[in-house]
Amino acid sequence: MHFGDTYGEILSMAVQMVSLLAIPSLTVLAYRNWTRRWRSELPHWRSVLGLISILMTSLGLLAFVSLFLAVLLRINLNADYCLVFEILTLTLGIPSALALKGPSRPQILSADLMMILLLWATINV
Questions:
Q1: What Cα–Cα distance (Å) separates residue 40 from each residue in 4, 69, 95, 125?
Q2: d(C-alpha 112, C-alpha 101), whole Å
Q3: Within 10 Å of residue 30's Cβ, how many Cβ atoms?
Q4: Which of 1, 44, 79, 98 has the greatest number of beta carbons closer than 10 A?
Q5: How far are the Cα atoms of 7, 119, 125 from residue 13, in angstroms, in the given order?
Q6: Within 13 Å of residue 104, how many CA atoms lie on the same side as its CB?
Q7: How far is CA 110 from CA 9, 13, 47, in A?
Q8: Mind listing the pLDDT tens digit for each residue in 111-125?
């Protein structure tokens, strides 16, 4: 076993743990900021797009976690479909996050970028 292999695995596990904690936290903070101030101040179309971005981030994380729950519960689930769903939620979530305003925008964009990092760290192990 090479030192670089072990180091890469440890780094990947650290990225996964931090991302699994940070993504829901950032999503909840973005939703809270959006509901408290920006939902009433933004035009209706921007408000709907912002809500779509928050929902897409939540659904993407739920799909990611469901893959591991399916393995633990021995449920036969096609990982390809979940990966396609992940990419779809990120593809819809990132551009629609630009409709948000204030701290909600960087929070949800950071959560989406961490989701990409989480997928990369999981696939490249």
A1: 52, 38, 21, 44
A2: 16
A3: 27
A4: 98
A5: 10, 12, 9
A6: 28
A7: 23, 19, 19
A8: 999 999 988 888 875
Contact by Cβ (8 Å): 54, 27: yes
- Inter-helix orientation angle 44-72/3-33, to 10°: 140
Calpha distance 82→74 (Å, rounded) = 16
Domain assignments of the chain as residue spans, ordered by start? 9-123
**Per-residue pLDDT tens digits for 72-119:** 888 887 778 888 898 999 999 999 999 999 999 999 999 999 999 988
Largest CA distance in the chain: 57
What SS3 class is residue 115? helix
The model's pTM is: 0.86
